[in-house]
């Protein structure tokens, strides 16, 4: 069988190397390589999807020895959960490359870093070896650090440093957890499938390992109170950086929570489930309230990420707490679909805010007004994405959040208080739309051009997917459900 | 005599190193500095090649006083090539200066001392190794013969004399407790815990000064700053790894009932934290890397604290030593062609992107970011520590890794920042670029390759 997972994984690296080799080529060629490479990656991801996944366990596994002395191998493969995230990643990167085709500031380095980031992201989702996972996990940090520091806004150095220190500090406990699981497994191995099949640790050791992992993934997701790096990083990052950070990299935390914490220390997670649930609920509400307090559009969307990822945490916690397989599958289906939806919706919103910022050089909602008259395409796209973000039925977040809330109601009804978050986000989006796009048109923005072809090409696929997941989520849920329905612990 | 015939073949690499040093000295007398360099480098490479057949051997010579084992063999395979790279750096920096050939010769002799340390199986060899590697090092630091270098060498010398004296004094307690100078007899010390403790404290003092462990590190930043950069690079790698390996040789035989692993772990915490905290406030890049190398020495101690309790310990020491040698020499090589101040690095990554990326990779490797060599080494060290139930120590080491990121970003961040208006825009290049580039290119290949292909090394160690 053709090793499509590895090919997809390393294609961006190949693209990056070819850009490195072509140091004197003009920017347009470099961006062309970026777009072409990411298009091939997307094709690879779709190919993986067309092959499908087995229910229970991983499929399309490719492996060879890497460091046999300590039981580390190069192992990659997908299940329903990781495959849907790989699809999201490939898709968002492709659009990001199209959007970034106008970057003229050091285009070579930009494309190289983005491609490196793409390999790291896909690697994080497909790795089946804990050491390999950690390698990709960390490489993504380095690339993102240089993205923010190199192409961000005014205060980028500080934001980049904060991002890097925070997430490195956050990811090191995971290293301890991985070492703990490694030393606990018999024979010693880094094979994640073995750790999932028979969790190597029990009792206090498992609980300590879980705490270390929760810390890491809480920083990454992010969960209150470990979210403080996020608004700064988002606001200072270039648009492409924000899209990838929110759309893809925040998923590392939620994915790790399912893959590592839930699957490798299930008993400990069950004991600590209520605590995780409380953090999830609080985080979701906190994110919504904090977003309400923002006047900068980008900051506002950044905080709604805290809110949306809070729902994901709630779903995972419910899955850990429940003893009924049906509810567990429902909660996890909702969580994974929420990750994908959040990637699409927040990606669209960050693109739109980036487009607005390119035109107006400000993101303060109070400085706009009546924009719909001047830029109808941009305006209506924003309205659609905002409605999706607040969870309107028929759009991407609704089926995801609905399943999470339904599972919560069945298992832990008190936690349904989290639903208040929807009301708050509805309020804040309506306020933002009202201030920016409706109201008295300001003559200052009369000459603002509407979306150009490049921007339409970036946005249209996102909006189509947002609607199609909202109306008929089953095309994606089917893949996810195959895995979540077979989980047993 | 037959015993001698058995022993000597094992020592051929060491003898070749001595001959290389002596030969370089002869060429220097003939004022043929280039030939001195070639002879020294050729000798060291020959010795490296002659070590390869010894891989897998585990024996001892001279009645157990000198060991031919994993540590001593890998010490040769790491330190000899590292010395060759140091020779090239020294050539790039000191070509045409007075007494150039003596530097090459001294580098060989100091390396010989480090090899003696790494293979010692006897307290007398510890003393011998410390002396052999120190005497040449004083001369190396003082080589430029200016005030700064002389002061640095004096400080270095006084510090060495005191710590060396303490070590010999303490070792007499071990001799008193066991009636023998062999490490293998240290097991008997569990009956005389006081003697064991005094001796251990003394050994940590004596070797700790060589390895620049806190609180015996004070000489290092001053000596590195006063010395030529190539000598600083060398001192931060070769004698340090020799001393660390010597400590590991002691640790393997010292009974754990004396509680020494905890002592080593405490020194590790102190060394790592102190090193990085002090590095945070340095403006001079050489001093910054000096403190960084102090902190890195603390990481080595994780492997030593786990020696005897974890099967990963020796392998982790060797892998980290190889990684450390590559990344530290690489970073110093780039300092040598850029400048000693942080300011010299501003904008360097923009005007010379390849050098800038290389420096970034060395520094990221020092932090321990995967998939670089430093990560492989640190990962195994953490694993060894956890395996030996020193989870808290691994945790402290991890926290220090985060601190270290802040340290190294102090160099990385300005590199990619545009130079201020009115500042010097032309980057000044120092020394022979070709030699320096060769050195950092080799270091770069090792730093990248060892991360991805750690198996090659791990498989060979077993």
TrEMBL record, chain A:
Entry's transmembrane regions: 6-22, 29-49, 81-101, 108-125, 131-151, 163-183, 195-219, 240-262, 268-289, 301-323, 335-356, 377-396, 416-438, 459-480
InterPro entries: NADH_Q_OxRdtase_chainM/4 (IPR010227), NADH_UbQ_OxRdtase (IPR003918), ND/Mrp_TM (IPR001750)
A Gene Ontology term for the protein's cellular component: membrane
Compartments, record wording: Endomembrane system; Membrane
One GO biological process term: electron transport coupled proton transport
Major place of residence: membrane
Keyword set includes Transmembrane: yes
Keywords from the UniProt entry: Membrane, Transmembrane, Transmembrane helix
Any GO molecular function: ubiquinone binding
Annotated NADH:quinone oxidoreductase/Mrp antiporter transmembrane domain residues: 128-424
Pfam families per record: Proton_antipo_M (PF00361)
Range of residues in the leader sequence: none
Membrane topology of this protein: Multi-pass membrane protein
Family recorded in the similarity comment: Belongs to the complex I subunit 4 family.
NCBIfam families on file: NDH_I_M
Protein name stated in the entry: NADH-quinone oxidoreductase subunit M
TrEMBL record, chain B:
Membrane topology, record value: Multi-pass membrane protein
Intracellular or extracellular location(s): Cell membrane; Endomembrane system; Membrane
Record keywords, A-Z: Cell membrane, Membrane, NAD, Quinone, Translocase, Transmembrane, Transmembrane helix, Transport, Ubiquinone
Cross-referenced Pfam families: Proton_antipo_M
Span of domain NADH:quinone oxidoreductase/Mrp antiporter transmembrane: 121-404
UniProt enzyme class: translocase
Known function: NDH-1 shuttles electrons from NADH, via FMN and iron-sulfur (Fe-S) centers, to quinones in the respiratory chain. The immediate electron acceptor for the enzyme in this species is believed to be ubiquinone. Couples the redox reaction to proton translocation (for every two electrons transferred, four hydrogen ions are translocated across the cytoplasmic membrane), and thus conserves the redox energy in a proton gradient.
Subunit structure: NDH-1 is composed of 14 different subunits. Subunits NuoA, H, J, K, L, M, N constitute the membrane sector of the complex.
Principal location: membrane
Domain of life: Bacteria
Any one of the GO BP annotations: ATP synthesis coupled electron transport
UniProt catalytic activity: a quinone + NADH + 5 H(+)(in) = a quinol + NAD(+) + 4 H(+)(out)
Segments crossing the lipid bilayer: 12-30, 37-56, 71-90, 102-119, 125-144, 156-175, 195-219, 231-248, 260-281, 288-307, 313-335, 356-386, 392-413, 434-458
Signal peptide coordinates: none
EC number of the protein: 7.1.1.-
GO cellular component: endomembrane system; plasma membrane
Keyword Ribosomal protein attached: no
Species, as recorded: Sulfuriferula plumbiphila
InterPro entries, A to Z: NADH-Q_OxRdtase_suN/2, ND/Mrp_TM
Gene that encodes it: nuoN
Record-linked PANTHER family: NADH DEHYDROGENASE (PTHR22773)
Record GO terms (molecular function): NADH dehydrogenase (quinone) (non-electrogenic) activity; NADH dehydrogenase (ubiquinone) activity; quinone binding
Annotated protein name in UniProt: NADH-quinone oxidoreductase subunit N
Family designation: Belongs to the complex I subunit 2 family.
